[in-house]
Amino acid sequence: MTLPGVAGRHYGPFPADTCGTSVARFVSAVGDEPGRWHSHVPPAYAAAMLFAAAPAFLEDVAGATRSLLHTDQVFAWSRSLPFGEPVEVTGTIAGVRSRGSTHLVTFDVAAAGRDGPWLEASCTFLMSPEPAAAAAEEPEPPIEQRGPVDVPAPAPLPEPGSELPPLQVSASRSDLVRYAAASGDLNPIHWDHGAALAAGLPGVVVHGLLMAGWLAVAAGRHAPGPDPLREMRIRFRRPLRPAAPALVTGRVTGRDASGADLAVAVVAEQVTVATAGVRVTA
Question: What is the DSSP letter of 243?
Fold first, then answer.
């Protein structure tokens, strides 16, 4: 099967798990605010919703690609989602743009429950039959080693133009396995050294959607209640290795009666690895 041949293909609907136990496992894996998500699903759980549908899509394209890079991600939330509400997830390959053997593939996901839509998402992947790079191999850090990690807590939103308080983040190789289990993102480049090398990486790398989760946590602590985020547009710029210390930084770019716009980034060793624009609710 060629990649252009899958454009327009639909997947699902698939049931999504919204039980409190599964959500709590995900909240712990992302490092969200302890005790905050006791009755509702956090925005970052969008990653688990995405991976209710993504495995069927990835199985379809597996034979046509050796390298798969997640380059951009958009999430849009419509409302709060209580624990246990039945949710179904559908996916669509919205488009394939090809240049030679390299393909830019857009995969759209929607999650809706008994009370209407909760999430719309759009993922952009760069796919190729060849490794994306030829990075020099690096040794893996000890399995539990990670950099400093802050426990997030509610914080007042600064005025427009002001900097957000930084949030220290990091993930050990064990953390990546826990996140894979909690999210359903089982891509072996996040836990298997050989698979990461075969993809052209120096070794195992942190999940892009785990970094997106850190960005969502850093932004969401400035908006109370079960529905803190309205939209997040993320660009994954460079891979992040496990155990590397990183900071989520940001600033308020605008504010009105309905909410505020934030520009946030994950920065490791003064190098930006992911950026996002986030709309938080009032």
Answer: T
Side chain identity at 226, as an amino acid letter?
A: P
* Residue 238 clears pLDDT 90, i.e. is over it: yes
Helical spans, DSSP H, in the chain = 20-30, 46-61, 173-183, 193-198, 208-220
Contact by Cβ (8 Å): 67, 127: yes
One-letter amino acid at 54 equals: A
* Separation of alpha carbons 17 and 185, rounded Å: 14
In a 13 Å sphere around the CA of 106, the CA atoms on its Cβ side amount to: 9
Position 32: which residue type? Answer: D
Amino acid at 12: G
Report which residue type is found at 5: G
Note the Cα 64 to chain centre separation in Å. Answer: 24
Domain count, the chain: 1
**φ/ψ of residue 244, rounded to 5:** -70, 130
Q: Does the reported pTM lie above 0.85?
A: yes
pLDDT in the model for residue 4: 62
Are the CB atoms for 148 and 13 separated by under 8 Å?
A: no
Stretch (H or E) spanning 103: strand 102-113
Domain of residue 31, CATH code: 3.10.129.10
The Cα–Cα gap between 187 and 241 comes to: 15
User: ∠ CA(34), CA(40), CA(46), 5° rounding?
Assistant: 90
- Residue given tokens 């050989």 in the structure block: 194
Local confidence band at 134 (pLDDT 50, 70, 90 cut-offs):
confident
Q: How far apart are CA 181 and CA 186, in angstroms?
A: 7
Q: Which residues contact 164 (CB under 8 A, 6 or more apart)?
A: 155, 158, 218, 222, 249, 250, 251, 252, 262, 264
Q: Which domain holds residue 215?
A: 3-281
Minimal CA–CA distance to 89: which of 58, 42, 52, 59?
Answer: 52
**Quick one: tokens of 253?**
């770019």
